[in-house]
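pls design
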């Protein structure tokens, strides 16, 4: 189904005390089966009435998203989990009590109320209660759970500002609520509670460490594991390309000094070929590339991975718009939000360059 062409309205809204009249207008669009992009604490979501199959199909059309990829259902309050999940095991209640509202998505058996369009025909549903005041007010005013993927074109970088949504989706959705930059900057953590132990399907805004402190060790799909630096990386063609800029992005992994040496070396050989590259680094890397003549994007500080999460997608989009041939990005440590940052950069990367073990000359 092609997207419905429509004029897109962009309205500013107060992110902490959203104006009731604006919320009511957006809620009316949702109730009428329309599409509204709105800020959550993680990234902007592209919302539709989760219980209206035709509205949900419009989300897929607007994004160009394959129908096999299920959508997260957003509820206004933790108690509404029972509306959309057939069973709420004690573990789900514990996690919702501890982390909701917030950037945690729980996968549970789906209730009959939830249409197959949302779950891609599957028997489970992903549910989250977002913390952002605009998201919560919108869902409550709509009077229905809201299905919302990230508000980007399929496989593209997620939006952390309303202008990113505009770039990707204007002309395809009715309304964008501009509540400023999103405070977390990476998507929610997706945890599958239908398996024992629960499986971390996507690292995100609630860290693995925070979850394990409450419920013990999680199961991890292979690509989430922090593989030792020496382990072979999957061949580039096998990397699930997602969250990607249009410009090829190469990710440089290894110890900090080796990464910095490799960035300089890649730059020198690129310059020799007349190729233009951009760097995506952290503030602490800046002194090591002061003489770099090209575009440099600084995403937060290594000492504060929350700042990296906040900046990451904006900087990727800025570098993508800079008209270079290639983006070289440093990898980030996997602690806390770092695991989500690492996951997204790996999925955005066309290639991963191993900058070598510490102490190896020439690495
Ligand atoms: O932070 C977020 O989660 C944002 C904001 C808008 O809430 N949403 C978001 O949605 O990132 P999306 O569609 O871009 O990513 C949802 C992820 C996808 O990887 C999807 O495959 C997975 O959640 N997912 C959704 N329903 C699922 C289910 N029933 N079982 C397993 N995975 C599911
Ligand atoms: Mg997405």
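designed seq:
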């Amino acid at each position: 189904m092609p997207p419905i062409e429509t004029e897109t309205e962009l309205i500013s809204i107060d992110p902490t005390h959203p104006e009731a009249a604006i919320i009511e207008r957006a809620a009316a669009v949702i109730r009428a089966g329309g599409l509204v992009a709105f800020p959550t604490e993680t990234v902007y979501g592209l919302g539709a009435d989760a219980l209206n199959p035709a509205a949900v199909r419009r989300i897929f059309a607007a994004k160009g998203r394959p129908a096999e990829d299920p959508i997260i259902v957003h509820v206004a309050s933790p108690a509404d989990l029972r509306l959309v999940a057939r069973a709420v095991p004690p573990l789900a209640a514990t996690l919702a009590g501890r982390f909701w509202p917030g950037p945690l998505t729980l996968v549970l058996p789906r209730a009959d109320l939830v249409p197959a369009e949302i779950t891609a025909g599957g028997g489970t549903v992903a549910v989250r209660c977002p913390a952002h005041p605009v998201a919560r007010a919108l869902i409550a005013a709509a009077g229905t759970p809201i299905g919302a993927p990230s508000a980007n074109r399929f496989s593209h970088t997620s939006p952390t500002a309303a202008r990113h949504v505009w770039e990707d989706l204007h002309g395809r959705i009715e309304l964008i609520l501009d509540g400023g930059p999103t405070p977390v900057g990476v998507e929610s953590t997706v945890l599958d509670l239908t398996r024992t132990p629960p499986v971390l399907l996507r690292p995100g805004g609630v860290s693995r460490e925070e979850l394990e402190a409450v419920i013990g060790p999680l199961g991890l799909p292979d690509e989430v594991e922090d593989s030792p630096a020496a382990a072979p990386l999957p061949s580039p063609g096998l990397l699930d390309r997602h969250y990607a800029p249009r410009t090829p992005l190469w990710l440089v992994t290894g110890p900090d000094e080796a990464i910095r040496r490799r960035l300089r070396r890649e730059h020198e050989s690129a310059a020799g070929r007349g190729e233009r590259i951009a760097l995506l680094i952290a503030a602490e890397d800046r002194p090591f590339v002061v003489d770099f003549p090209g575009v440099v994007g600084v995403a937060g500080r290594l000492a504060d991975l929350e700042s990296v999460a906040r900046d990451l997608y904006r900087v990727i989009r800025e570098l993508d718009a800079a008209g270079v041939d290639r983006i070289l990005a440093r990898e980030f440590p996997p602690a806390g939000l770092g695991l989500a940052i690492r996951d997204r950069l790996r999925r955005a990367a066309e290639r991963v360059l191993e900058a070598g073990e510490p102490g190896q000359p020439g690495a």
